[in-house]
């Protein structure tokens, strides 16, 4: 499947397990996620209508990841048609944004793709899900579209997600909402904690300040509750494309210096999960908002 098709592959969550929509919430930027390690570079100012990124830095969001698989009738046309129907449903007004991820490597730890939903809090997410599964119209719609995509809401995992830098510091993302994601699973080294990570992040931001931008890049941190065996936190890198990720990795290895040493002393991070990614829902952009 071509990259442009990846953008809508995760648009729907079936089996009574998805929600989103947003009406009166703060304009959430057209991307999410986080971790740290490689960086592409990009210059140009962020669009005026999305110029709310400084309000987002340091704000903790409650983000859920839901595993999804395509059905026998999964294709671009059917996904587009399904989304038209989904946007007419009574979904929660508390959903802040949503993004989709399709594995970009045959060596991924996971066979499925993902939906990411962003909320202000766990309470808001839980309340929205409770309403969603009781909505007969929504359940009928999902059942009718099971051959297109099925997502397992019961298997969703939640992380406290935070941006630690203006997401537009390297310029705006692509107009079509596509981006390339690297998620690094990280475990704290003995005696290290989130306090040490914050010191490393300060050095990382200083290192980023010295780069010459050549393309969109942003990052974020997903902190866990200590129950995930794979990671204490995930570091998410969001690049304009895979070439930008490769350029960023080379730059990091060559010139990361003090920032790299600090991060490596703080946590051991494994091989990243890589995804072709896209914006699913963004209230600041009509094409990604409720129809």
Give your account of this protein's structure.
With about 290 residues, the chain is an alpha+beta fold. It has one domain. The chain has 8 helices and 10 strands. The chain has helices spanning about 5-10, 55, 75-85, 120-130, 135-145, 195-210, 240-255, 255-265; strands at about 60-70, 95-105, 115-120, 150, 155-165, 180-190, 215-225, 235-240, 265-270, 275-280. An 8-stranded antiparallel barrel has the order 1-3-2-10-6-8-7-5. α6 (about 195-210) runs antiparallel to α8. The longest helix has 16 residues, at about 195-210. The two termini are about 25 Å apart. Residues about 1-55 have low confidence and may be disordered.
Shape assignment? globular
- Unreliable sequence segments: 1-54
Question: How many separate domains?
Answer: 1
Strand order of the largest sheet: 1-3-2-10-6-8-7-5
What's the end-to-end separation, in Å? 26 Å
Mean pLDDT: 80
Number of helices: 8
- How much is the radius of gyration in Å? 18 Å
- N-to-C series of helices and strands: HHEHEEHHEEEHEEHHEE
What is the structural class? alpha+beta
Q: Could you give a short account of the major beta sheet?
A: 8 strands, antiparallel, barrel
Number of separate strands: 10
Helix content: 25-40%
Binned strand content: 15-25%
Descriptive tags:
single chain; 291 residues; alpha+beta; 8-stranded antiparallel barrel; 8 helices
């Amino acid at each position: 499947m071509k990259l442009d098709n990846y953008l809508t592959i995760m648009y729907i969550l079936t089996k009574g397990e998805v929600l989103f929509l947003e009406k009166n919430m703060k304009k959430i930027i057209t991307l999410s996620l986080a971790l740290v390690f490689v960086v592409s570079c990009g210059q140009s100012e962020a669009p005026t209508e999305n110029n709310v990124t400084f309000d987002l830095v340091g704000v903790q969001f409650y983000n859920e990841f839901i595993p999804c698989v395509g059905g026998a009738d999964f294709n671009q046309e059917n996904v587009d048609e399904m989304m038209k129907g989904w946007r007419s449903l009574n979904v929660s007004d508390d959903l802040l944004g949503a993004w989709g991820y399709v594995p970009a490597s045959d060596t991924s730890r996971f066979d499925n793709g993902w939906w990411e939903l962003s909320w202000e809090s766990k309470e808001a997410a839980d309340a929205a899900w409770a309403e969603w599964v009781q909505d007969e119209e929504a359940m009928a719609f999902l059942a009718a579209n099971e051959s297109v995509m099925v997502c397992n809401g019961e298997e969703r995992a939640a992380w406290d997600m935070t941006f630690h830098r203006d997401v537009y510091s390297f310029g705006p993302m692509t107009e079509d909402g596509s981006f390339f994601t690297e998620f690094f699973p990280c475990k704290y080294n003995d005696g290290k904690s989130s306090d040490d990570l914050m010191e490393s992040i300060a050095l990382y931001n200083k290192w980023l300040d010295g780069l010459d931008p050549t393309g969109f890049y942003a990052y974020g941190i997903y902190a866990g509750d200590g129950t995930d065996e794979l990671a204490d936190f995930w570091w998410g890198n969001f690049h304009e494309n895979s070439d930008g990720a490769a350029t960023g990795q080379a730059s990091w290895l060559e010139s990361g210096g003090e920032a790299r040493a600090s991060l490596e002393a703080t946590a051991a991070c494994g091989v990243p999960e890589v995804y072709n990614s896209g914006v699913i829902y963004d209230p600041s952009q009509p094409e990604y908002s409720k129809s």
